[in-house]
Amino acid sequence: MGRIFTVTLEGNTFSCKHCNTHLALVEDIVSKNFQCRHGKAYLFKRVCNVFSGQKEERMMMTGCHIVADIYCVWCGENVGWRYETAYERDQQYKEGKSVLQLYMISGPDDTSYMFGHGAQSEESDAESQ
Questions:
Q1: Is the pLDDT of residue 124 over 80?
Q2: In the structure, what pLDDT confidence band is assigned to residue 108 with cuts at 50, 70 and 90?
Q3: How far is Cα 43 from Cα 129, in angstroms, rounded to an integer?
């Protein structure tokens, strides 16, 4: 395997809770009203130091989307997903944006978000069962 290069972000950052690799900036948050299986999640317009898994169609709470899981480039942990395609017109603002699951990241003040943190959100995008 080759050498891994990571981007170091300047400012208030969110990092992988396992290896502290920078993933996103606070200023890139689009919405804090997302939900994953394990609690709260944030939608970001930009993330870094991740790689994408295979694209797949998923039925989410807000409809059917084509998404790809995203993984920390350093430790390989699944930290969220990226929206590739949204079929519903009112959901297309998500395309090209990424969701980071709060239980997998540390916040700008080195806060780790706990499993099940937060209540069900109105704009939830957890997978439907």
A1: no
A2: confident
A3: 21
Phi-psi region of 23 (alpha: psi -120 to 50; beta: other; left: phi over 0): alpha
67 pLDDT band (50/70/90 cuts)?
very high
Are 110 and 117 in contact, with CB atoms under 8 Å apart? no
pTM here is 0.85
3-state secondary structure 59-117: EECCEEEEEEEEEECCCCCEEEEEEEEECCHHHHHHCCCEEEEHHHEECCCCCECCCCC
Integer Cα distance of 127 and 5 in angstroms: 32
Between CA 15 and CA 25 the distance in angstroms is 9
Question: Could you give the CA distance from residue 103 to residue 109 in angstroms, rounded to a whole number?
Answer: 15
